[in-house]
Write a structure and sequence with these properties.
The chain is an alpha+beta fold. The chain is about 50% helix and about 10% strand. α16 runs antiparallel to α17, α20 runs parallel beside α22 and α22 packs across α24.
Length: about 575
Amino acid sequence: MAIPAVYIQELVARNDIYDVISRYVSLQRAGRLYKGLCPFHSERTPSFMVYPETQSYYCFGCGAGGDVIKFTMEMNSLSYIEAVRMLAQQCGMPMPDEDDGQARLKARILEMNKLAARYFHNCLKSDAGRDARKYLRDRQLSDKTIINFGLGYAPQGWQGLCDHLRAKGFTDNEIVTAYLGARNKKGGIYDIFRDRIMFPIIDLRGNVIAFGGRRMGDEGGPKYLNSGDTPVFKKSNGLFALNLAKKSGRDSFILAEGYMDVISLHQAGFSNAVATLGTALTQQQARLIGDYAKKVIICYDSDEAGQKATRRAMDIFSKEDITVQVLAMEGAKDPDEYIKKYGRQSFELLLEGANSALDFSLLKLKKQYDISNAEQRVEYLTKACDVLAGLTNPIQQDVYCSRLANETGTDKTSIKLQLERTAARRRRANNRKKEQELLHSGVGSKIKVDYRQKGNTMPKAYAQQQIICALVRDNSLYSSIAQRLQPENFTDGDMRRVYIRVCDMLENNIPATYTTLSGRISDSAANALAGIFARNADIIITGKDVQMHIENLLTAKLSQSEASEKTLDEMTERLKLLKEKKK
């Protein structure tokens, strides 16, 4: 059930968009507006704008836009109802009586997860958890660490957790949806996690949203088993121990491979360690790290698989505005083993001497060639210039060119010339790519009208957008617009759907503002509407302007496909309008 529009208006009034966004983004005043670096994509020049007058935001770089509710949804990976609930809690507003089935289900899953975490922890302390406790002691984890991370044990039986949750009033369907139970061939359910050390995954609000389980024996499925995606959890969007790392007070994060590495690092005092959730690093996770840290130190295993994952992670982080360093561990395969063998202080020194991403790439590249061989030396230098071509700082370029010249006995001027040629070639390729992207993205991609056609004094797409913008700004224009325009007059799908929704709301005496609309239309329509408002921030659209746009929309030349969809009566009426316009 939809939340009443009057409630949403009050909620937005109590949560000023500047106050909310400035908690995540550093904003600077730009006249009546505010600007900053977009939190939804990597950029160096601010293109993210906040509009206090309309309580909206829009990024001219990636097209993300919306109101304070949409921003809260995107920044915290929440549903519409959850974002409303979060904002309501922040300003002390009670939620309305209307309920939402999906929100109820999520609340039930979070409650199940909390009960499951307690169940696993109690099992760890019981006789059934004796071997699990020994395993954790052998890994040198203290009782304090075990409690701090809420570690537990899933016993060997097939029904323990399911029976426990049933006794608490949860249904089989709910248990399966939460990924705590699975159905057998007869339709019954059984525990998914059995005979495993359990690692609760906790979100930034302290909710247990999922679990990771490490197999105790040599048999019984994969070594690590992780929760699948559920209504409260998406493994590609979260990080293990982020709830603790964000409180570390450090401006850097250590990215490790597994749960045990992270736990060992935290126990050793490195409380800024995090890990992915049983998957390779994703762009969403890299962006999430960038939200809380200025630098990330990749600390993956030293084996071939770990090094391959390191190179992939570097490529992903290269798209974010975050400094990347890579830890090279000699004499240990992972951080847990290194700290046990050499101690905390040695690991601290290792962190301080971590290689930059460039150093790591060049070192890996150099190992592939015998630079005493002239032919291989040339190939190494050519590939090295490819690695360095992204550098824009002339001092960095000079330093690395000098280093390459010294280690290969090559003239520095020649290396610098090759680097400049490589960089120029890459810039040309990037410019061509950007041109192609511009041709197939943004508002321009939606405008299907040929500007050269006679009779088209203004693109229909633009006319439709301006009409919608004016109507949402000023609902009093509705009667004059509705007399002349039907939904089928809108050829842009998003604009047609917005117009239908606005008409429906106004006919039912519900104010149609961006805020009240955004929860009732699709994401694509909400983004399109935010972009229209942003482009018209300093433009006044009068009643006469609206009538002019209506004229252009109604009398614009039809495309062949549009004409084929018109009835004879509609075509007759359209010809009549065209004749009147010519007179």
